[in-house]
Design a protein that fits this description.
Elements (H helix, E strand, L loop, with lengths): L3 E5 L10 E4 L4 H9 L4 E4 L13 H11 L4 E5 L11 H4 L6 H18 L6 E4 L5 H13 L4 E5 L1 H5 L4 H19 L5 E5 L7 H6 L4 E4 L1 H8 L2 E3 L6 E3 H6 L18 H7 L3 H23 L3 H8 L5 H15 L2
Helix pairs in contact: 2-4, 5-7, 7-14, 9-12
Bound molecules: zinc ion.
Length: 325
């Protein structure tokens, strides 16, 4: 099955890339989704900035259902965390009741969505903190009939001081869930992950999709332009200022037909930046599907020398996990 990355819906984007939108999408995004021909994944929202009484499973599903159209390929069930600490996965009591609440929410959403005639699958979303807990609870989800599985992972990558450990947990959990599902069956969605360096690694371990905002939000909020092939980010103004000594041989559909200076000038515009970044990510997704997932170990052996440390570290963990089988 092809690996897919769903990007935060952005109405001005030219490329018809897979998109994700929250259940609480604005009316403008909701009507744009209906006219958008790309695959769409409907998110159940971020827990930390929404009042619990406004984010009940009934409200989430009702609003998700209103966004469903012929291009919807998945609905994320409502995940809950143990309390309000974003580092719950480091500090928390992982045996807490939130895992049962997650599974109950997923069963509720699946059954209700079926009775509403929604054909897109509900992704059963659980929030384990360790691979041991993931193994126990995703097995319960599979036993309850779920084969579309999901986990929110943005909290694992949020704190710089815990990012290496968070990355390791994500990779270990992805591997354990893939082993539970079997090599070729079922789907694994990691929500809140669009790291350029991690996408090939999680795909190699068996994730089938992710969603996130990096290529869109960084372009809009920080003016960041990402280099194809390496994922290195630089601000558009720094690129423009350094243009005399800069090599710019971008294969994206915006840049490839323009001379260097015209490309770099265009990237000063936010919409152009988003389009360039989305193309950059989609080129990576194409590489993943054409070359990485069929034989990750060989791909890594060939590419290793040219990869930045931010890629090498997670790859080393992944290769170790793959070789343990
Ligand atoms: Zn480009």
């Amino acid at each position: 099955m092809a690996f897919t990355c769903f990007y935060t819906a952005y109405k001005e984007a030219r490329a018809a890339v897979p998109v994700t939108a929250g259940y609480d999408a604005s009316p403008g995004i909701a009507s744009w989704l209906r006219s958008c021909p790309a695959p769409q994944f409907i998110h159940s929202g971020n827990w930390w900035n929404i009042k619990p009484e406004k984010r009940t499973r009934e409200v989430v599903l009702k609003r998700q259902a209103a966004l469903v159209n012929d291009h919807t390929v998945g609905l994320m069930s409502m995940n809950v965390q143990p309390g309000n600490d974003p580092l719950y996965w480091v500090h928390g009591d992982e045996e807490g009741g939130h895992m049962q609440a997650c599974l109950d929410n997923a069963n509720f959403a699946r059954d209700e969505a079926r009775s509403m005639g929604i054909r897109a699958p509900v992704y059963c979303t659980l929030q384990p903190a360790t691979s041991r807990n993931a193994e126990a609870w995703f097995q319960r989800a599979i036993d309850a009939g779920h084969s579309n599985l999901c986990m929110g992972v943005s909290e694992f990558l949020r704190s710089p001081g815990h990012r290496n450990e968070g990355t390791r947990r994500i990779l270990e959990i992805t591997r354990v869930v893939r082993q539970l599902l079997g090599k070729k069956s079922g789907f694994i969605h990691l929500s809140g992950l669009t790291s350029y360096h991690l996408l090939p690694v999680v795909a190699a371990l068996g994730a089938t999709s992710t969603d996130g905002s990096t290529p869109v939000q960084s372009a809009l909020a920080y003016g960041t332009v990402f280099f194809p092939g390496t994922g290195k980010g630089m601000s558009a103004s720094a690129l423009w200022e350094g243009r005399a000594s800069l090599e710019w041989d971008c294969p994206c559909s915006s840049c490839r037909s323009r001379p260097k200076e015209a490309s770099l000038r265009a990237l000063m515009d936010p919409v152009e930046r988003v389009n360039h970044n989305l193309d950059t990510w989609e080129l990576l997704v194409r590489e993943i599907n054409e070359r990485v997932t069929s034989d990750p170990t060989s791909w890594y052996a060939v590419k290793k020398a040219g990869l930045p440390p931010a890629s090498k570290r997670p790859w080393a963990i992944a290769i170790d996990l793959l070789e343990r089988e």
